[in-house]
Amino acid sequence: MSDRKTEFITGIFQEWYGSLCRFLTQKLGCKENAMDVAQEAYVRMLCLEHPEEIRHPRAFLYKTASNLAVDSLRRERVRLSHEGISIIEQIPSLESSPEAVTDARERLEILRQAIADLPPRCRTVFLLHKFKNLSHAEIAARFGISKNMVEKHIIKAMARCKKRMEKLK
Q1: Whether residue 97 sits in one domain with residue 68
Q2: Which residues lie closer than 8 Å to 8 by C-beta, 6 or more apart?
Q3: What is the phi-psi region of residue 134: left when phi exceeds 0, alpha when psi lies from -120 to 50, beta otherwise?
Q4: Dihedrals φ, ψ of 23, to 5°?
Q5: Can you list the alpha helix ranges (DSSP code H) found in the chain?
Q6: How would you class 69 by CB atoms within 10 Å of its CB: exposed for 0-12, middle for 13-18, buried for 19 or more?
Q7: pLDDT, tens digit, for every residue of 122-131?
Q8: Do residues 96 and 139 both lie within one domain?
Q9: At 117, phi and psi to the nearest 5?
Q10: Helix (H, G, I), strand (E, B) or coil at 23
Q11: For residue range 1-47, what is the model confidence (pLDDT) as tens digits?
């Protein structure tokens, strides 16, 4: 990699790093994740053959970072979805012993309370998705919000439920 190419990309990155991190923090909801995604966008730009041929380097940097942020949110959603399944699998069958039945009822009550404690919009989005099987697009259209915001609400709800269930261990 030529020094000139590295200097060119580093200059662009340094100039826009602060605003890029703010943009990504807003999109991801986490400053540390935003910084990681910004760094990954920088590395991706360093791997380009001829970055000097990019007409709008700032736009390219933001688009690359935005795409990486979407990928990050999708990975997080899948991870939380799998964790949510494992939480449900931990609830014993109601045909078990009286202790198991009591334990299952306590777990269900904790989940019910965790959902009830969510902010109203977050709770409604989560319930529509999980119990009414509405798609992200349908929910987004119903509330006039983006599909990305629907995903954030669902991720937030899953994380809170998981956190409450972890307190039982």
Answers
A1: no
A2: 51, 52
A3: beta
A4: -60, -45
A5: 3-28, 31-46, 57-90, 98-116, 120-131, 136-143, 147-166
A6: buried
A7: 999 998 998 8
A8: yes
A9: -80, -5
A10: helix
A11: 567 878 888 888 888 899 989 999 898 888 888 899 999 998 888 88
- Six-digit token string for 40: 């990954």
Same structural domain for residues 96 and 150?
Answer: yes
Report d(CA 153, CA 29) in Å as an integer.
11
Query: Based on the structure, what is the number of domains in the chain?
Result: 2
Query: Which amino acid, residue 133?
Result: N
Helix (H, G, I), strand (E, B) or coil at 18: helix
Q: Which domain holds residue 35?
A: 3-73
CB-based burial label for 132 (10 Å; 0-12, 13-18, 19+): exposed
- 69 and 95 in a single domain? The answer is no
